[in-house]
Amino acid sequence: MPKVYNWQIGRKMEYRYEEAHPKRQLVAVFNTNRCIACQSCTMACKSTWTFSQGQEAMWWNNVETKPYGGYPHNWDAKSLELMENTSPVAQVWDGGEPTPERPYGTFTGKTIFEMAPQGRYALGYEPPEEDWQTPNLYEDTPTGGAGVKGRAFKGGAIHDHESWFFYLARVCNHCSYPACVAACPRQAPYKRTEDGIVLINQERCWGYRMCVQACPYKKAMYRPDTRTSEKCIGCYPRVEGKDPESGGVPMEARCMAVCIGKIRMQGLVDLEDDGDWSARPDHPLYFLIKVAKVALPLYPQFGTQPNIYYIPPRWVPREYLRQMFGPGVDEALDAYTNPSRELLAVLQLFRASETMYFRYEIVQGEKYREITIAGAKRELFDDVVIGYDQENREIARLRVHESLHVRSEQYSNSI
Q1: Is the pLDDT at 222 greater than 60, yes or no?
Q2: Distance separating the N- and C-terminal Cα atoms of the chain
Q3: Residue 161 near residue 171 (C-beta atoms within 8 A)
Q4: Structural domains in the chain?
Q5: Tens digit of pLDDT for each residue in 104-154?
Q6: Residues in CB range of 228: below 8 A, 6 or more apart
Q7: DSSP code, position 394
Q8: Where is pLDDT greater, at 405 or 38?
């Protein structure tokens, strides 16, 4: 197979097709520390795209409780176990000094493409019917919970909890090297050149379910009544600026826009011909992922180079988080729990606008407080962060120090 460069694993790897990249890539950051599993995102997607007959088991967006929840059930544990049992070498990272070309080090194990069976282009499995029947199994189930067998990890860096869980919101990753695209003998799945969104051509799809087998995240799903596969389409009409409310500029997807917990930020980043991100330190997503390095890819060792990134939860054992988000976990959590002045401002932009940000700037304010974190003193400033859309129009303006409004005695009781 041809060789392509995957910067998330820090090396070249085998992939079915030659190196090719879109002009822009749809990217998102999810802050797991804020997710409350309200399922607003899930129902927004369901009511928009998968409410028809034959789509009953389709949840393009879902929120699962880790470590035991998952849709389809145990998708990640099964994918990882399959890789471990198939790989001729240890599935490990080299732990070397990170560089811009390999910010998380180098994954020296084998990806799903490099372990593909004879006649296939990706290693994978097709979940049985029962794995699709319970989209929210083990909701709010912590480690050591009744009826669940598993290791009771110690807690993370903040507290030592014997029991823990966290919510993981998931959509299609619109990967740079999609397994669904590599696997299909009909070339039905494809990656759009204008924004990197991965779609399935319904006229070309014959329902072989190779995409379902190959996608390690199990975000390609088979529809029995049409005998075709379907998946998240990235709400591409909104991304194209064709939503009536968009004003002609790119707009976030439905699941992003309804998020009550303000955990999501979605946008478009420019790519160079070699697939590297164009240097844009004033783009909030570029800053979060490439500069602050506070957001990480989900299971980068799969090799698909996913474009949905996560700020890891602070209270979860680092051992568990490293196998899920790679070796950048410690650096990401250090940056998030003790944020720089700029990071603290950029974090305010989450869910302040449905319109995508293309640039931000920070107007520095006065110091309003001193605090101590992990024995170190920090100064907090009342900075103002401003977000701009594709046309360089202001769409959001927020203060780091939120104003406090106290009811007058006349209205002290709202009843």
Answers
A1: yes
A2: 69
A3: no
A4: 3-341 (3.30.70.20), 343-399 (no CATH)
A5: 999 999 999 999 999 999 999 999 999 999 999 999 998 865 555 544 455
A6: 200, 202, 205, 206, 207, 222
A7: E
A8: 38
